[in-house]
Specification:
210 residues; alpha+beta; 2 domains; 48% helix
Length: 210
């Protein structure tokens, strides 16, 4: 799931308006999947190392240590995550910042045949970059007005851009109905105005593009 990805719907209609402030079940599920994969592949071993019994290096994530630290810093969310009940949005955003701070990209440097595991080296910067891209894609695709910055902080996206877009769309719809009085096919003009509005503000979700 890492890397910059733009879906067809984003290219065709522009990205979803990012005005939502409550993380729903779908977005929570995506965040859970993203963090679970980091626990499983050893990415969190940089902060919570599961050590080789022979002392040869880190073999993955110490899940118990991760769970204890998570419970101490974010009491409202526990491991394993509860998919049936979506936590409060603020708690989820704290979880994202917590994970960002403790993630790295693992690379196997050698294999320990006796125990059947690898020993990992870590690149914290690359691990944080991949995690940030995955989280921001989930937030964007679900229309949420939050973004994980490269310093690991969640910020709210400015809303002025969306307010201006709403005003423009309203104005264009009024014009469309006026044009209809001159016998121009109203549906054709509505489609044109919608396409124009969506493409004009295609990058509204990026801080500073307001």
């Amino acid at each position: 799931m890492s890397g910059e990805i733009e879906y067809f719907s984003d290219r065709d209609r522009g990205p979803v308006s990012r005005v939502g402030e409550k993380i729903d079940h779908a977005a929570w599920g995506g965040i859970v999947a993203t963090i679970r994969s980091r626990v499983s592949d050893g990415s969190l071993g940089i902060a919570f190392p599961d050590a080789c019994p022979d002392g040869r290096g880190i073999t993955g994530t110490d899940v118990e240590a991760f769970s204890l630290a998570l419970g101490a810093e974010i009491p409202e969310i526990s491991w394993p995550f509860d998919l049936e009940n979506t936590p409060a949005t603020l708690g989820i955003l704290d979880l994202v910042e917590f994970t960002f701070r403790n993630v790295g990209k693992p690379t196997a440097r050698n294999h320990h045949s006796f125990f059947g595991h690898d020993h990992f080296n870590y690149d914290r910067e690359q691990g944080q970059l991949g995690f940030r891209q995955d989280i921001n894609r989930i937030l964007a695709r679900n229309g949420l007005a939050y973004e994980l910055q490269d310093d690991g902080r969640i910020v709210r996206l400015p809303l002025q851009c969306y307010e201006r877009r709403s005003l423009l769309v309203h104005l264009l719809l009024v014009i469309a109905r006026w044009i209809a009085c001159w016998k121009m096919p109203e549906r054709s003009f509505l489609i044109l105005t919608q396409r124009f509005a969506e493409r004009r503000w295609k990058n509204c979700g990026t801080p500073g593009n307001v």
